[in-house]
Amino acid sequence: MPLPQRAFYTVQEAALRWDCTLGGLAGWAATGRLEIVTAIRPVIQGGHIHAGFVAVPVSDILDLFWPDDDTTGRVTLRRFRPVETEDWVLIENPADFVEVRLSRLMIAAEEMQRFETTNGLMRRIASGAPPRHDWEGVLAYLIRRVHVEGVPATQGEWIAIALDWFAQHSEDGEVPDESTIRRRLGPIWKSLQETV
After folding, report:
1. DSSP label at residue 177
2. How does pLDDT run across 76-115, given as a tens digit for each residue?
3. Inside any domain, residue 129
4. Which domain of life is it from (predicted)?
């Protein structure tokens, strides 16, 4: 039985999918064309408890989207907007300020689809039949994983990680067989074993 469609994408995944910079993505969000959310711990403001997913004012946290700047990779969020509401909530007590990291900023799947449809960003196939499997997606995932966790110790582990990614992202439950994954991704793992 295939897994349900994903609920959220990270902003990094969206930038890879749309072939744009994080700065470009931030610009769309800061001008109201795209909603970016994050999860917050419970905060009491105006007699109400706010928790869970909230929209973030990207113009307040732009430093996160330019990684070459001299930032800690975290910024303080002092206001938010509960999802599906219009009013921003100002966090008055500094003890309740929320720390935000780029890796925890997300776009809801429905918002991704709306943005893609509105702006004609649906994946275009240059010619021929569409690919059966998302090889670009798995490569993007493997690159991020190697960056964060390092190269898997064995080729078998490398193939298992890719197979698991395909299983989680397949809309119809179909995944490439292990020999196809080994043929296409094995040379990449081998090249990562080489010393420069």
Report:
1. -
2. 889 999 988 899 999 888 888 888 888 899 999 999 999 9
3. no
4. Bacteria
Domain that holds residue 74: 8-119
How far is the C-alpha of 60 from the C-alpha of 38, rounded, in Å? 14
Are residues 15 and 84 located together in one domain of the fold? yes
In degrees, to the nearest 5, what angle opens at C-alpha 98 toward C-alphas 62 and 146?
Answer: 65
Residue 65: partners with Cβ closer than 8 Å, 6 or more residues away: 11, 22, 23, 25, 26, 58, 102
- Kindly give the residue spans of alpha helices, DSSP state H, lying in 93-177: 109-119, 135-149, 155-169
User: Which amino acid, one-letter code, is at 77?
Assistant: L
Residues 49, 99, single domain; the answer is yes
d(CA 187, CA 89): 51
Is 140 in contact with 162 (CB distance < 8 Å)? no
- Let me know whether 39 and 96 are in one domain: yes
- pTM of the prediction? 0.60
pLDDT tens digits along 160-174: 899 888 888 877 778
Phi-psi sector, 128: left (phi>0), alpha (psi -120 to 50), beta: left
Element housing 24 (H / E): helix 22-30
Pair (35, 104) in one structural domain: yes
Q: How far apart are CA 74 and CA 84, in angstroms?
A: 26
Length of the chain: 196
